[in-house]
Write a structure and sequence with these properties.
heterodimer; A: 506 residues; mainly alpha; 2 domains; 23 helices; disordered C terminus; B: 336 residues; alpha/beta; D-Maltodextrin-Binding Protein, domain 2; 3-stranded antiparallel sheet; 11 strands
């Protein structure tokens, strides 16, 4: 009963309610601007809310978190620049939809499924947290490695050009991710003796350059095309089309909760894996994936918001951050005199329930805010290209500088913009390269970690895979993903009445 | 409409950027806001300790301290950045112990020798922990098993130069043990792997491990110090078990605030006073206690001596353990 009281507190307390709403609104803006990340906003808020009482600080931070993860998808859909890493997968089908004049529909869908995904994530947090956190601890470095491999296989299903070119771009991405200090020995790799390359190539500037600047350059090349007229009716998705997609929303949200709950992986990986899963399992998408399929927006958007609830699971039950933002919230709890750890829920249960209800308020606020102002957002795409494109470039520069106040990052971002332009020119998709940059370190460090644990004996490493159930299941999923892509099996499964389809829940 | 808002927002962002870039100042210090560069990423120990002390120091300076994280290269990026700013007291470095080893590890030529310490805030003791259901009941058992099975016992560490690396290198030098050391990107992830049973032990800072010890999910085998911890009186100090460690203890990560060498003395004094007052604030003391951080509050000459001694200790130790690339002698770092 006491818990219910704590749960209801933010709904009834006007101050907490309005702080959550303000936080959500601010978070959406921060999320929508490339480079300004939720992580940064949350850490600024720690100093800002230093003198406040804990509940108010939590309300504001939870709002910013929820709004920020969602906000990234607005720019992803409208101008092909994911505002945050969690929105990368939304670009693949969201931007093509905007190009068809369906930006409104795409944002409307994204918002609605973000709410659903967010609520599913919160439900798991509220009712399944202790069990899920135990499961998350069981994931060893070997399993993270396999998860990374699963993600990188996306290259073959991503982009609409040639698979070989996708693989080349992805490989270059992985290679670029190796620049900098070797994570385990501290050796310098490909740094050419400069201290600025020692920190490695951070993927957010690369992402902004590859998606945003290269798109702007490419559009300029096309001459003065008239802006795309956006359909403004039917932006709020009707009940029927939502119901139709419910199974996909649930499946993607489950992936989101699961990946989010794993310490060390967050909304970006969740959204990518959910996108891949949708691409493999949805039999008759509204359009082919990559050309503006609604399913391609629904899957990543439900997954990345579900990952928020997931990320709070290990944080609130064990004091282990599920992602970068929850790591900062742990710091905030410390500053406010709490002790985040396994005893937090026993000694101070109010924190748990207040976070749960602030997240719910924030998810609902998000929908109301966006759906009521959507028509204004759509005007962005109707801005003449000769004005919009320079604005995208400027926004990219400012956003990149803001990440860690580094001009090197800005140069890096511009270089990737130019690289991306030429890649597009010659038919190489840029998505695989970003994927390589994100997943390269996940795969590399975890592979080396698990090899080290197997005393650098490859046979022992393979033995470990067979003797651990989680690793074994992940390996089977990977084998299935590879086999189902091979031409012979594709044609076999078609003849055999689709026996290979339908069971790929990854 | 949106376009206007966007423009307004962008000009705001640009304005902020110019504020950060800043100019050179004259007259009474500080006449404008001060920049604080944090060596490590948001949410880490250095970040949290820095963000908690600045709001308390600001009233004594009369201006804001704008904190920015510049993580990367074990803190060398931030250190180099602050070193390249003018020595006018408008750029502070919020750092941890890592630069002590930059020179011998070949990470950077710039270390705290090129900076003036404002305050050394505190240090975090190191505790070797195992899972609560581990077969190791004592540190002796742990060392004996590691000796009997060289390279088989898995420990988690946080990369070259981190405290777990230094502590396990000391074990290597003193007890002659060889571990199978698995790298993790921080103490938190290392402890997570320990809780999941993927490694056998970890020499970790007490702050991230404390709550797991309290919840009896982890067990402490020893404190890397001469005396036990007040909060965990049943974990023995290492010198109780192996007196031969005496020479090397305590070794711990610590946190401090620095300005570039050559900053005018009155500015250094003003900053020192402000941060000392903030440090003495009961609110900050309570915060440090909650994080199991040993309050040091060293300033002036004491702080200089502390920083230099830590550098000697760490550099020579890494050299003896065979983990350093270059000899401390090359840089005229005195023996501890």
């Amino acid at each position: 009963m006491e818990n219910l009281q704590y749960f209801l507190l933010p709904f009834l307390d006007l101050k907490l309610l309005s702080l959550t709403i303000v936080g959500t609104f601010a978070g959406m803006w921060v999320g929508a601007i490339p480079g300004l990340s939720v992580t940064m906003a949350a850490s600024l808020l720690i100093s800002f809310t230093f003198a406040w009482d804990l509940n108010s600080a939590l309300a504001l931070i939870c709002g910013v978190y929820m709004g920020g993860v969602y906000g990234g998808s607005i720019t992803a859909i409208l101008i092909n620049v994911p505002g945050a890493p969690a929105a990368i997968a939304t670009v693949f089908d969201g931007y093509p939809l905007a190009q068809r004049g369906e930006a409104g529909r795409a944002i409307g869908l994204a918002t609605t499924v973000s709410l659903l995904g967010g609520l599913i994530g919160i439900a798991f947090l509220a009712f399944g947290a202790p069990i899920l956190s135990k499961f998350a601890l069981k994931f060893s470095p070997r399993d993270y490695f396999l998860l990374g491999v699963m993600g990188i296989l996306l290259i073959t299903s991503m982009g609409h050009g040639s698979t070989i070119k996708g693989i080349i771009a992805g490989t270059v991405g992985v290679l670029l991710s190796m620049v900098g200090l070797d994570p385990s020995t501290g050796e310098l790799r490909y740094t050419f003796g400069t201290v600025y390359l020692m920190q490695g190539i951070s993927f957010i500037p690369a992402m902004i350059g590859l998606f945003g600047v290269s798109e702007a350059l490419f559009q300029v090349r096309g001459g003065t095309l008239p802006p795309i007229k956006q359909m403004v009716d039917k932006v709020i998705p009707d009940f029927k089309s939502i119901v139709k997609h419910i199974p996909l929303v649930i499946r993607s949200s489950l992936i989101g909760v699961w990946i989010g709950a794993l310490p060390g992986t967050g909304g970006d990986v969740a959204a990518l894996i959910a996108y891949d899963n949708a691409k493999r399992t949805v039999k008759n998408p509204s359009r082919p994936f990559g050309q503006g399929a609604y399913e391609g927006v629904i899957a990543p958007e439900s997954a990345n918001n579900a990952a928020i609830g997931g990320a709070f699971i290990p944080m609130l039950t064990l004091g282990i951050p599920g992602d970068a933002v929850t790591a900062i919230i742990i710091g905030a709890l410390f500053i406010h005199g709490l002790k985040p750890g396994p005893l937090l829920m026993i000694e101070t249960p109010q924190v748990f329930w207040i976070i749960v209800s602030c997240l719910i308020i924030s998810a609902i606020t998000m929908v109301i805010l966006v759906l009521s102002t959507l028509k204004v957002f759509l005007k962005v795409v109707e801005i003449p290209k000769n004005m919009l494109m320079p604005m995208i470039v400027m926004l990219s520069v400012v956003g990149t500088y803001a990440i860690q106040n580094s001009l090197t990052d800005v140069y890096c971002m511009l270089a990737f913009g130019i690289l991306g332009y030429f890649m597009r020119l010659y038919g190489y998709a840029v998505g695989p390269m970003v994927l390589g940059l994100i997943l390269g370190p996940v795969i590399e460090t975890n592979f080396r970690r698990s090899m080290q644990m197997a005393e650098n004996n490859p046979l022992a490493f393979i033995g470990d895979i067979f003797s651990h159930p989680i690793s074994f299941v992940l390996s089977l999923a990977i084998i299935y993903m590879i086999v189902s892509q091979v031409g012979i099996f594709k044609s076999l499964s078609k003849k055999g009445g689709g026996s290979f389809n339908g069971k790929g829940n990854g | 409409m949106f376009c206007k808002r966007l423009l307004a927002l962008m000009s705001l962002a640009l304005g902020l950027a110019f504020m950060v870039l800043g100019g050179v100042a004259l007259a009474e210090y500080p006449e404008k806001d001060i920049n604080g560069i944090i060596q490590w990423g948001a949410g880490g120990a250095t970040d949290v300790i820095s963000r908690a002390i600045t709001p308390l120091a600001e009233p004594y300076l009369g201006k804001k301290i704008i904190l920015v994280n510049k993580p990367g290269a074990t803190g060398a990026i931030a250190t180099t950045y602050v070193y390249n700013q003018p020595a006018d007291g408008y750029t502070l470095l919020f750092g941890a112990e890592n630069p002590s080893m930059y020179k011998v590890l070949g990470l950077s030529e710039i270390d705290y020798g090129d900076f003036e310490p404002i305050i050394i805030i505190g240090a975090v003791p190191n505790v070797t922990v195992v899972k609560a259901d581990s077969k190791y009941k004592s540190f002796k058992e742990f060392i004996e098993d590691a000796k009997a099975n060289p390279g088989k016992v898995k420990i988690a560490f946080t990369g070259v130069g981190g405290a777990p690396h230094v502590v396990s290198s000391i074990m290597k030098v003193v007890s002659g043990v060889e571990f199978n050391a698995v790298e993790f990107p921080g103490e938190g992830p290392g402890l997570t792997a320990l809780l999941g049973g993927h490694v056998d032990a970890m020499p970790s800072g007490i702050a991230p491990a404390a709550e797991f010890l309290r919840a009896k999910m982890l067990r402490g085998l020893m404190v890397f110090d001469k005396k036990r911890l007040m909060a965990f009186p049943d974990i023995p100090a290492i010198t109780e078990i192996y007196p031969e460690y005496e020479k090397y203890v305590p070794y711990y990560p610590w946190y401090g605030v620095f300005v570039k060498k050559g900053t005018p003395k009155e500015i250094v004094d003003k900053l020192t006073q402000a941060f000392k007052k903030a440090f003495d604030d009961p609110k900050y003391q309570e915060f440090l206690a909650k994080r199991d951080t040993i309050p040091l509050g060293l300033t002036g000459k004491e702080a200089r001596e502390f920083v230099d001694r830590q550098r000697s200790l760490a550099s020579w130790l890494m050299w003896e353990a065979g983990a350093a690339k270059r000899s401390p002698e090359e840089f005229k770092i005195p023996k501890p």
